[in-house]
Design a protein that fits this description.
heterodimer, A: 196 residues, Immunoglobulin-like, 2 domains, seven-stranded antiparallel sheet, four-stranded antiparallel sheet, 13 strands, B: 230 residues, alpha+beta
């Protein structure tokens, strides 16, 4: 085999490897931590891996998102985390009311063109809360709630069409606002494409 | 020769599968004649966690239950109106000669520390993100022990109580089917005063989850009690 043909073969092999690698990277983007039929409904359930879009160090509350598909229904899952201090030991009432987003609450998406997409939740979300006692004077609470925002095909295409600037979740104790950076917005597009 | 080998292999398989079902206790009620089998406990919290939990599958007669053992540390503030500083009275507490007012408060704390009233929930999150909610049948309380740690910056105004509670949650066919076909990833237990979330893995990107190995062990335990016929 001549030198030229050897070179050509090696170039072809390298290109093929690169193409394969690119394809595998592209398909690896959609990672699911739940991908199985539901034991209760039998529908196929998919949850993409949680993706952070707010800076946990500087923001409180902060949030993660996931794309959820349950049969034909699609959701944007927002996992909201809030930490705060209490002047006393938490009661059961404190733990129960840490984050409450009743069914029918409004979730607003502010888009890059300043338009607002309003979606109502169809399921209630209650936070799981726990507290840490550092000493007799400090009681730190952390609460964790997963809010499922139902998405129609129309909403899904609207949310992926342009950048999202902010999300506002109407919780019982007041609105919870989350700001999106450029990266966060891009991640949201990727997450939603995985369940489309 | 081959037949002998095959039977030896089969015997080996039988022994292995039987060895998987480890029972902690089995007893028969002398009055009713009902037999109770309980598998060994499966730990669902690591040393890193604050509260320790363990679950077991229980069969009483024809009924199947999920049993849970919780060991938890609770903090109680000493009512300021009593004006008792535990640091000042720690020596007396050690010797049992503490202020009688404190004794009354402690007794109340020990009662409230961790008990499971009838109808309390045990929420199990499965790997497909579906949720199974079990309800306890009756009031459960075992022992609790109060103590005041000496070296954690405690200024003497709060008290710690270590409690242990065992509770049983009945399982129906639908629940058993769900729990044996999907692995449990999260356990949240309700007691009179608060909730306990069990975890063996703490990852910021995921809600607290119990590990895969523990989940599999729990499924195995449930399968073991399903084989028991009254």
């Amino acid at each position: 085999m001549s030198y030229k043909s050897k070179l050509r073969n090696s170039i072809v092999a390298t290109c093929a490897t690169l193409l394969l690698f690119a394809a595998s990277t592209a398909s690896a983007k959609c990672k699911f931590f739940v991908d199985m039929p539901s034991v209760t409904t039998g529908e196929h359930v998919r949850w993409t891996k949680w993706t952070g879009f707010t800076l946990a160090i500087t923001t409180n509350p902060y949030a993660y998102m996931t794309g959820i598909s349950e049969g034909d229904r699609k959701y944007l899952g927002l996992r909201i985390r809030k930490s705060y201090a209490l002047p006393r030991i938490a009661t059961k009432e404190d733990l129960d009311r840490s984050i409450v987003v009743p069914a029918g609450s409004d979730v607003f998406f502010q888009m890059a063109d300043e338009s607002i997409i309003k979606i109502q939740t169809d399921l209630p979300a209650t936070g799981d809360a726990d507290f840490v006692v550092h000493n007799a004077k400090r009681y730190d609470m952390t609460a964790d709630a997963i809010v499922k925002v139902p998405l129609t095909a129309e909403n899904l295409s609207a949310l992926t069409a342009q950048r999202v600037l902010r999300i506002r979740v109407g919780a019982e104790s007041g609105d919870l606002d989350f700001k999106f950076g450029k990266k966060g917005s891009k991640k949201m597009g990727e997450v939603l494409k995985c369940i489309q | 020769m081959q037949g002998v080998l095959a039977s030896l292999w089969l015997l080996g398989c039988g022994a292995t599968s039987a060895a998987e079902c480890k029972f902690d206790s089995h007893s028969t009620d002398p009055e009713t004649g009902v037999t109770r089998h309980a598998t060994k406990y499966v730990g669902i919290a690591t040393m890193m966690a604050k509260d320790f939990g363990a679950v077991q599958a229980v069969s009483i007669g024809n009924d199947k239950f999920l049993g849970i053992r919780l060991r938890a540390m609770n903090h109680f503030p000493i009512p300021p109106e009593l004006n008792i500083n535990l640091n000042a009275s720690s020596e007396k507490y050690k010797t049992g000669r503490y202020d009688p007012r404190l004794k009354t408060v402690l007794q109340q704390f020990e009662q409230d520390a961790a008990f499971v009233p009838k109808g309390s929930t045990l929420r199990l999150t499965l790997e497909d993100r579906s949720v199974v909610v079990l309800r306890s049948t009756d009031y459960r309380k075992t022992r609790s022990q109060g103590w005041k740690p000496q070296s954690d910056g405690n200024d003497g105004s709060n008290f710690r109580i270590l409690s242990e509670v065992h509770a049983l949650y009945p399982l129906d066919e639908v629940m058993i089917n769900a729990l044996t076909s999907r692995m449990v990833t999260g356990v949240r237990m309700e007691t009179a005063g608060r909730y306990y979330e069990f975890a063996s893995r703490m990852n910021d990107l995921y809600p607290l989850t119990i590990g895969k190995k523990n989940g599999q062990q729990l499924q195995e335990a449930l399968n073991c009690v399903l084989q028991i016929k009254a």
